Amino acid sequence: MQSLIGHGGSINEIRTQPLKPSLFISASKDESVRLWNVHTGICILIFAGTGGHRHDVLSVDFHPSDMHQIASCGIDNTVKIWSMKEFRPYVQKSFTWTDLPSKFPTKVVQFPLMTCVVHSNYVNCTRWLGDFILSKSVENEIVLWEPKTKEQGHGEGSIDVLQKYPVPDCDIWCIKFSCDFHFNQLAIGNREGKIYVWDVQTCPPELITMLSSPQCKMTIRQTAVSFDGSTILACGEDGSIYRWDEVEHEAAKN
Asked: CA-to-CA distance for 195 and 189, rounded, in angstroms?
């Protein structure tokens, strides 16, 4: 067991690098995102500064196939896309470092690849969907959009909104969604205790099911979908955890 010390405020989210599970990123109230090596206890990179977030960072995610890119979002209403490709030698060095973690030459990344304004309010949750991004604010919807480079778009930070996933009674902040490993299903709760499960591979969006329970009437703040999408967990704001399992029904016999 070890404690990794570095942030100057509460930590709002942690995500593991799917291609290198030793690496993880943390999003904090201190307006920064940090990249860590869990095995050596090293803080490798700090994403903050001149071009960084100007308020709490609420959510962060690794690109599923490009291990050098991350996306972060927060109370400053922005989604920022960062690259750590330039700092690959420091990432590699973190695996063989034998001195004290405090002596590691941690680098500060001050400028993101782009800053995107998709929502007009706090951005609570962001996830990569291939090269696209899913994000949620305080509107009753999740937005799927594509970030555009200067060459592709009309300037830095331009986007193309691809489609939206409606979620009734979800117009408050601090509600986060989740997906299964293969990004087939997206699950999100609302303030009425219901769970909406969307198929994220269809266009237009297709609602797979709406889950509810007579005992679950409070706001669902977080969901978790199992690897294959067969189990969904939901966490209510009263500390309760609810579980739904997919059940195969036998065909009716003649």
From this structure: 4
Per-residue confidence at 148, pLDDT binned at 50, 70, 90?
Answer: confident
Q: What angle do CA 206, 65, 75 make, to 5 degrees?
A: 70
Cα-atom radius of gyration of the chain, to the nearest Å?
19
User: What are the domain boundaries of the chain?
Assistant: 1-166, 169-245
Distance of CA 199 to the CA centre of its chain: 18
Is residue 39 within 8 Å of residue 58, measured between CB atoms?
no
Confidence (pLDDT) at 248: 77
Total residue count of the chain as it appears in this document: 254
Using an 8 Å Cβ cutoff, are 211 and 232 in contact? yes
CATH topology of domain 1-166: Methylamine Dehydrogenase; Chain H (2.130.10)
pLDDT digits (tens, 9 = 90+) for 27-66: 999 999 999 999 999 999 999 999 999 999 999 999 999 9
Eight-state DSSP code of residue 230:
S
